[in-house]
Design a protein that fits this description.
This protein has 281 residues and is an alpha+beta fold. The protein is built from 4 helices and 14 strands. The longest helix has 14 residues.
Length: 281
């Protein structure tokens, strides 16, 4: 059975107020085009794929089941470079060869099969690489399908999920000296505090270090209705802790969501004397 991957947004609210004037926010980020970099990475990953010496390149899918990859991340920002081959060996022999030699320098990240009453229709091998800055994930997926004449076919996908650039306006000024943080459970406020001086600047550093979030479908943890909130002048950060991702607005306009993490949750919650994951009360 074909599966979809993950990714999406939630709501955290930390209120940063009274920003200092120096180190103010500027225009949109002008970093490298992340989609172009992702395409380069996909090409690099595909160059690591090796197939048996007697394999023949095909410019189209040799088998209907290989028309699509077995697994597709459910995200908006995906580069998927693909190739096909036919191999005179049976599927089990081809699979065994690929398990040992298919992708050099990458670690196996999983495997699986799909099929029906007639037996296995497809074998899947996954290999992951460590994602560089600006990339969420990099993976090579090899799929092997048995053919009716006893031979086999291979599909290779180099899948790279990239992150949108963080807008410059999402950066909290370094000279900020007031941040108001709030916490809610099921819509009821359970904490509020105004941070000043070094405390405010340390929290700003945590927030400024966050990358953008993956855009797309997203799974969440156990939801206790726990929300945190921050507003820094025109900047507002909102996050439902169970889903981590942080919704950001600047002067009321939506910005790229940020990827929240445990360090962020701890920095905000502990500043109010709250646990990272409080129970309902």
């Amino acid at each position: 059975m074909r599966r979809s991957g993950l990714a999406l947004v939630a709501t955290l609210t930390v209120t940063l107020a009274g920003c200092g004037n120096s180190g103010g926010v500027g225009g949109p980020s002008r970093g490298p085009d992340p989609s172009s970099f992702a395409r380069q990475e996909a090409t690099r990953l595909m160059s690591l794929v090796h197939v048996p010496a007697d394999a023949t390149t095909s410019d189209h899918s040799p088998a209907k089941i290989l028309n699509q990859p077995a697994q597709v991340p459910g995200v908006d920002d995906l580069v998927d470079e693909r190739r096909w081959w036919t191999v005179p060996s049976d599927a089990e022999t081809t699979l065994a060869w690929l398990q040992k030699n298919g992708v050099k320098h990458l670690k196996s990240s999983g495997s699986g099969t799909s099929g029906g009453p007639a037996g296995v229709e497809e074998y899947t091998l996954n290999f992951a690489d460590r994602a560089p800055a600006g990339i969420s994930s990099e993976e090579v997926q090899l799929n092997v399908a048995p053919m009716s004449d006893g031979t086999s076919a291979i599909r290779a996908d180099a899948q790279v999920v990239w992150l949108v650039n963080r807008a410059a306006v999402e950066t909290i000024p370094r000279a900020i000296d007031r941040i108001a943080v709030s916490a809610f459970v099921m819509g009821r406020q359970i904490g509020h505090r105004v941070l000043t001086g070094g405390e405010a600047r340390r929290l700003a550093m945590v927030i400024n270090a966050l990358p953008t979030a993956v855009r797309g479908e997203h799974g969440c943890g156990m939801d206790q209705g726990y929300q945190l909130r921050v507003v820094a002048g025109p900047l507002v950060f909102k996050n439902e802790v169970a889903c981590f991702d942080i919704a950001v607005t600047y002067q009321g306009h939506g910005m790229p969501a940020l990827a929240g993490d445990e360090a962020f949750v701890h920095a905000v919650a502990s500043s109010m004397g709250l646990p990272d994951h409080p129970s309902h009360r």
